[in-house]
Amino acid sequence: MTAALDYLVDLLDLEAIDDNIFRGKNTNENRQRTFGGLVAGQALVAAGRTVDASKQVHSLHAYFLRPGDAKTPTVYQVDRIREGRSFATRRVVAIQHGEAIFNLQASFHVTERGASHHHPMPDVPRPENLPTFTERFADQADEMGDWYHRPRPIDTRFLVAPSRAIEARQEPVMRMWFRADGDLPDDPLLHACVLAYTSDMSLLDSILVTHGLKWDDGSMMGASLDHAMWFHRPFRADDWVLYDMASPSAHGARGLALGNMFTDDGTLVVTVAQEGLIRLTEKGRARQ
Fold first, then answer.
1. Beta strand 241-251 with 173-180: parallel, antiparallel or unpaired?
2. pLDDT band for position 241 (cuts 50, 70, 90)
3. Distance (Å, rounded) from C-alpha 187 to C-alpha 111?
4. Which domain CATH number covers 258?
5. What is the separation, in whole angstroms, between the first and last Cα of the chain?
């Protein structure tokens, strides 16, 4: 396991401070807000720690309520909503400075047999044939600063760099391969939480690319509003996963993005949906 991945796994290893109450470590990064994928991943850990191992997460639905403070630990309060023979439901509230910043409801299900089909994976280049993050963005290293040089727990291979897609005003689609940069323990909950962490990466870029908008150039104010995931089949987050993202609609300062995650053999394992705030500034409106 690389040092960066080991650090992420440590961030996802919450401290139990009371019955149904957990505390997550902060990253202490100089960021405007806590990365939403980290809050979602930690909240799912908190929920999963209260569920019997015979049940695995099959869905989560969450709302981002307030910006998180990257320099402050987050407390997660778990409410055991339902404990059935086949399903268990948990509600988690993430708290900083005495206020809720995020809430999540997750459902866990025992493995059952049943009808099976899935949408096919698109025909795309193999991840081994695509540039690494540092190779893909080498010409933007000075502009990206510390963001370019920082260690990365997730190996991401974009088919097209978001910045290039934005410049081309391409269709509202983004695709990337990813995997944990190292071997993870055989813990299905941890693998699900790593995918929850990664699911917030570039999903809303599928909205921006067709409108010529960028996160950091003053053309817009953006934020995740809500997030949902459905876990269809077993997977490993340390094997290659294709994240196929597209936006069916944007209107009224909000945009919707959908994502499908496929394993290396083309099996659909996770579906993601997220709505984001896409509030244009005067500079952004001038581009439309």
1. antiparallel
2. very high
3. 15
4. 2.40.160.210
5. 45
Q: Which two tokens stand for residue 176?
A: 């990337």
Q: Which two tokens stand for residue 246?
A: 């597209």
Q: How many structural domains comprise the chain?
A: 1
| 29-84 pLDDT tens trace | 666 678 899 999 999 999 999 999 999 999 999 999 999 998 899 999 999 999 99
Residue 154 domain-assigned (yes or no): yes
Is position 196 within any domain?
yes
Q: What is the pTM assigned to this prediction?
A: 0.94
Strand order in the sheet with 99-110: 15-18, 21-24, 74-83, 87-96, 99-110, 55-64, 220-231, 268-280, 254-263, 241-251, 173-180, 154-158
Number of helices followed by number of strands (H, E) in the chain: 9, 12
Q: Provide the domain limits for residue 236.
A: 3-111+131-287
Q: Is residue 124 part of a domain?
A: no
Q: Which residues pair with 63 in a beta bridge?
A: 103, 226
Cα–Cα dist 201/152, whole Å: 12
How crowded is residue 12: how many other Cβ atoms within 10 Å of its Cβ? 20
CA-to-CA distance for 273 and 99, rounded, in angstroms? Answer: 25
Strand partners for 106: 60, 90
What's the mean pLDDT in 16-35?
86
Which residue has 């409108």 as its token pair? 211
Q: 148 lies in a domain?
A: yes
Active site (catalytic) residues: 200, 224, 274
Per the rule left: phi > 0, alpha: psi between -120 and 50, beta: everything else, 212 is left
What would the pLDDT profile of 99-140 be if each residue is shown by its tens digit? 999 999 999 999 999 999 999 999 999 999 999 988 888 887
* 241 DSSP β-pair partners: 178, 263
